[in-house]
Amino acid sequence: MFKDIKYIRRLTGLIGLLSMIFSAFLLPPLLVSWWYHDGEFSHLLDSMLVMLLLGLLLWFPVRNEQGALRRRDGFLIVVLFWTLLSVLAAVPLILALHTSFVDSLFEAVSGFTTTGATVLVGLDKMQPSILFYRQELQWVGGMGLVVFALALLPMLGIGGVALYRAELPGPVKDEKMMPSLYKGVRVLWLIYVGLTVACAVAYWLLGMNVFDAVAHSLATVSTGGFSTHDDSIGYFHSAAIDNCVVVFMLLGAVNFSVHYLVLNSGDWRQYFRNMEVKTFLLFVAVIVAVETAGLWFEGTYRGVLPSLHYALFEGVSVITSTGFGIADFSVWPLFMPVLLLFAGFVGGCGGSTAGGLKVMRVLVLGRLAWREVRQLIHPKAVLPVMLEGRAIPELLLQSMLGFFSIYIVTFVVLMLAMMAVGESQVTAFSATATCINNIGPGLGEVATNFASISPAGKMLAVAAMLLGRLEIYTLLVLLTPAFWRG
């Protein structure tokens, strides 16, 4: 694979180009620092120059290299770039907050993977530019910077289909929304930006100041969950804001191709004609109903409506892998905290910014399991797994079953490793679950933040967040000898 020097030069150049693109995202935090005079301008400027110069050093010597990227190249570039970017994204946090490298890397990866777990406390007293930088990390990671770059790469003569397939979240990565890949990516980002603007305006109209409205919109549509306050959305003490957050968390967790169909047709009923979206909304409704009943029965909150309010917000927040909070669900009675964490394994729709296994995979796996039950009764019958009137190919079924198996095995290995470095069973389970599903809050010591976790535990959490965001295969494929022999 690496015998072709031109191949290596193309990879190096593309990584450098993407690094330069990311450096431009430090301009908004720089403007925030200048506006608020918070003293972080020089730290942010130094960080931007480091990213820009590193990217320039990688790209400029090989700027004239041409050639199409193969599918396997996409996996390598995505992994290399996310690893490099995570390290670079930690630099502003190290300079501004004087945190350790491990803590800064954890915070950067949590932001970029839209997990929302944090090691930081005292957010209400933190510099506005650093708070905005954290929020922006989640917004960039929500749709994926590589997918964003695809909107620019055609102008530079660089192909990108391989990157698209390696980066775009969801179970059906080869399914294109439009005949033109680049047009499709641009439309996705226009929808993403449009939802963010609408979210910010709604927050502002409901009482947030401009800074909080913009900052929280970045973390809502990306289903990231970072906040500018230690009390998260609970800081605002507003039922109207809470309900607005719920709406935009759900929109962020819906397949963006369905958003496109709705906009293109002008028919909002498209949302309820899509099998995955219908299943997703039904799943949310069932979890919220169970949580509401439990809270009301146990008398945690006074009355059904308050119980519904808290169950709805926390349920949607966890299922969409956003991680915002208006209450500490880890202290809820009975089985309810664990039920929420397990619901987070399902996550949102494929092709959305949410984490988890994705609803489509769970739906198909459920139908596959039911087919096996029926096959026991009719062993000679041919029983295809159907979805929206179409038989799902056996190869795709095997792929989804394989993904589910490796997902669970990876979870168990990481959880055991967490316990091996000294974390309790509850903390190890919830920390691994919340990181691999990109949720944010957990149980035990990580109910509110990861500050008390050991450095080794934090690095395991970093690995879990990256594996979950890149859907495991993208990283694990690099460990196979066949990949490097190709």
Structural class: mainly alpha
Figure out the total of helices.
Answer: 22
- Model regions low in confidence, pLDDT < 50 over at least 5 residues: 151-164, 172-179
Task: Average the pLDDT over all residues and give the rounded result.
Answer: 84
What is the helix fraction of residues, given as a range? 55-70%
Description:
This protein has helices at residues 5-23, 27-36, 41-59, 71-97, 101-112, 128-143, 145-150, 161-167, 181-205, 210-221, 239-252, 256-265, 270-273, 275-298, 304-319, 336-346, 359-377, 394-420, 425-436, 455-469, 473-476, 481-485, and strands at residues 386-387, 390-391. It has 486 residues and is mainly α. The longest helix has 27 residues, at 71-97. The N and C termini lie close together (5 Å). Mean pLDDT is 84; it is low at 151-164 and 172-179.
